[in-house]
Amino acid sequence: MRTSPPLRTGLRMALCSLLLMLSAATDVFAADDTSSTAADPAAVTSFGKLQGVPANTAINGGGMLPAGRAITALNSSYRSKYDSAAGQDLKTNRNIDNTTFVNLLKLRYGVTDRVELQAVVPYIFYDPKSGHNLDSWGDVVIAGMYGIMQEKFGDPLSLAVTLRAGLPTGSMGPSALPGGGAWSGTGVLGLTKTWGRNQVAGDLWYTVPFEEGNAHLRKGDSYGLTYKYAFALTQNLDIGIEGTVERGENGRRLGRDVKNSYLEWYTGPAINYNIPGTTVDLAVGAYLPVYREYGQNTSYEGVRLDGKIFILW
Q1: Around 162, how many Cα atoms within 13 Å sit in the side-chain half-sphere?
Q2: How far is the C-alpha of 201 from the C-alpha of 157, rounded, in Å?
Q3: Percentage above 70 pLDDT, the chain
Q4: Is residue 230's pLDDT more than 50?
Q5: How far apart are CA 103 and CA 168, in angstroms?
Q6: Torsions phi, psi of 259, nearest 5?
Q7: How far apart are the C-alpha atoms of 100 and 302, rounded to whole Å?
Q8: pLDDT tens, 44-93?
Q9: Which of 45, 80, 118, 167 is deepest in the core (most CB within 10 A)?
């Protein structure tokens, strides 16, 4: 399979970003003589309170905010789709090489120690190699999360259920992406487990679109899982691996099936760094394809680059 210039550029960006962040974080801690854990990273025996923030746009986990605390996060994903996969059900369509840049403003608020309100405001830049751009607002998502078990209360793990409602707020018309502007619902089961300097987190989720969206497209049901493992190098720096597995069923346009099903598994390294003395975290991750399967000829990304700026209030 050919390796395109955007793929090579993406891989270089991913490696450089990860190495630069690791180098900068190491320098900061090495220079901080007032921190015993900075002088002796081996002295770190537990996960820091502001560690484990995922870079991946899809990972949530089961941990919840304390009552009265809030999170504001800007989570972005850069996807340069210049590699091609043949469709299993439809091979006559022309796949469109493109660059997609997903931007999500994420808001969370702890109503109580076990109840959390959430919202996600998406904006997507879509730049095809041929044709006109379809930069669009996505459907805003509002959600309620309930903590069944929480480690902060002495439970062995954090387990939470989330119900999300997708609002028909997406951009409409020929200059916007198909399928937006439609009601949808999502159920999520999230889990987080922390022990010593280690943490695992993940989600099982299922999304159902309720109606046709832009361009008369009703998206198919989608479902999948996410996972993250992180290891604390210091009280402000953790590294690990993150991944997503997502399956989408065929959609429908004007009552007829669209052969656009897919199955994608992406995974790769991630770094999270808490700026010392603040509640601000910076996270970056690079994810490579492990497995891909498409119903029709499709352009896909050889690497996904995700980043997050996270603030706890």
Answers
A1: 30
A2: 10
A3: 86
A4: yes
A5: 18
A6: -80, 60
A7: 13
A8: 788 988 899 999 999 999 999 999 999 999 999 999 999 888 988 888 88
A9: 80
d(CA 17, CA 76): 14
CA 163 to CA 52: how far, in whole Å? Answer: 23
Beta carbons within 8 Å of 225's beta carbon, 6+ residues apart: 202, 203, 204, 205, 244, 245
pTM: 0.84
What is the four-CA torsion angle of 160, 53, 305, 118, rounded to 10 degrees?
Answer: 50
Q: Measure CA 29 to chain center.
A: 28
Instruction: Find all residues with CB under 8 Å of 15, minimum gap 6, and list them.
Output: 286
Q: What is the mean pLDDT of the segment spanning 274-289?
A: 96
Contacts of 260 (CB under 8 A, 6+ apart): 220, 248, 250, 251, 294, 295, 296
**CB-CB contact of 136 with 124 (8 Å):** yes
pLDDT in tens, 102-112: 999 999 999 99
Beta bridge partners of 175: none
Q: How far is CA 256 from CA 223, 290, 296, in A?
A: 22, 31, 15
Above 90 in pLDDT, residue 184?
yes
Q: What is the 3-state secondary structure (H, E, C) of 42-93?
A: HHCCCCCCCCCCCCCCCCCCCCCCCCCCEEEEEEEEEEEECEEECCCCECCC
224: amino acid identity, one letter: G
Nearest-Å Rg of the Cα atoms of the chain is 20
The torsion angle over the Cα atoms of residues 211, 215, 216 and 219, rounded to 10 degrees, is -50
Residue carrying structure tokens 């919840």 = 64
The amino acid that residue 295 corresponds to is G
DSSP 234: S
- In angstroms, how far is the first alpha carbon of the chain from the final one? 47
Strand, coil or helix: 27: helix
Give the closest residue to 155 by CA, choosing from 195, 116, 189. 195
User: Residue 150 pLDDT > 50, yes or no?
Assistant: yes
- Is residue 250 over pLDDT 70? yes
